[in-house]
User: Which sequence fits this backbone?
């Protein structure tokens, strides 16, 4: 009985690290050397945006076509909603935003390497327009070149 | 008549089959376990968006402080397949990413040793690229900027006119 319990514990410990963001796994990140810091911690307040080729955004449980006005409109609405929630939370806690930005949140952007610059810049500009100023771009370390998706 | 109570014999439970099953399950999950790869982070803060500010074309002239420069505009041109065809810094073409790094370092005065308290004088890199340029090349340029300790980056609206 104790053996079974220990095995179940090991099983669930392994499963915990398997359960990552499924959308993030679909993004093929570009390679980079700098910066040297590698962090895999979840930021306290972050909004994850995953963009895969050719111009599809994965987030909020849906797929948005960033080339269509409808897709950009939906994204704008979603980001405005996120901003509103953050503002209310900040007002409730009376906590000023850190770093001089209006909204105390970081937009974590994962973009596949073959997405066009225009698509990426439109998303960044939209987030800026809504009020987000802190961004974090993701890349793979150059040693990790096994071509994993 | 006294009846002797027989003490119950030791329990004979055979756990072998159950243990085998558990180990098989464990081996299955260990073999199929796929750890996620590590990710690098480029952290930057963009200025608050003013109405149409990001839609303004990059300035023709640059701001400078004496012999040192605060902002630098990096123009990236794309080839037919979205590859990086050329890089220009303040209108001057440079030779690839190594040329870009060298140019930024020259502009910030780092190479000449003219620094303000050990920090480079250059503050922000304004990146302007052709709309069809692949994102991988944008990251390469950001990587080169980070190498030159230039971590404030602003992504401007894609260039409409083809780069010279």
Assistant:
């Amino acid at each position: 009985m104790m053996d079974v319990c220990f095995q179940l514990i090991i099983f669930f410990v392994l499963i915990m690290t398997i359960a990552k963001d499924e959308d993030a796994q679909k993004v093929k990140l570009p390679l980079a050397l700098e910066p040297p810091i590698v962090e895999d911690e979840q930021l306290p307040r972050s909004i994850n945006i995953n963009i895969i080729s050719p111009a599809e955004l994965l987030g909020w449980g849906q797929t948005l076509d960033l080339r269509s006005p409808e897709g950009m409109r939906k994204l704008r609405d979603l980001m405005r909603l996120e901003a509103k929630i953050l503002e209310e939370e900040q007002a409730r806690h009376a906590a000023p935003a850190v770093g001089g930005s209006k909204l105390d949140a970081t937009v974590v952007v994962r973009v596949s390497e073959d997405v066009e610059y225009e698509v990426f810049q439109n998303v960044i500009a939209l987030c800026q327009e809504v009020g987000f100023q802190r961004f974090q771009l993701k890349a793979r370390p150059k040693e990790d070149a096994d071509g994993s998706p | 008549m006294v009846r002797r109570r027989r003490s119950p014999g030791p329990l004979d439970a055979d756990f072998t089959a159950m243990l085998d099953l558990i180990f098989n399950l464990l081996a299955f999950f260990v073999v199929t376990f796929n750890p996620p790869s590590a990710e690098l982070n480029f952290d930057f803060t963009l200025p608050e968006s003013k109405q149409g500010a990001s839609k303004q074309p990059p300035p023709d002239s640059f701001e400078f402080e004496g012999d040192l420069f605060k902002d630098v505009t990096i123009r990236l041109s794309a080839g037919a397949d979205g590859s990086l065809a050329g890089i220009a810094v303040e209108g001057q073409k440079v030779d690839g990413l190594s040329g870009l790094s060298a140019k930024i370092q020259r502009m910030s005065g780092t190479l000449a040793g003219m620094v303000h308290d050990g920090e480079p004088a250059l503050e922000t890199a304004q990146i302007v690229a052709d709309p069809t340029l692949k994102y991988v090349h944008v990251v390469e340029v950001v990587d080169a900027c980070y190498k030159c300790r230039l971590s404030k980056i602003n992504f401007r609206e894609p260039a409409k006119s083809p780069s010279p």
Chain A has a mean pLDDT of 78. Chain A touches chain B through 53 residues (CB under 8 Å). Residues 2-141 of chain A form one domain.
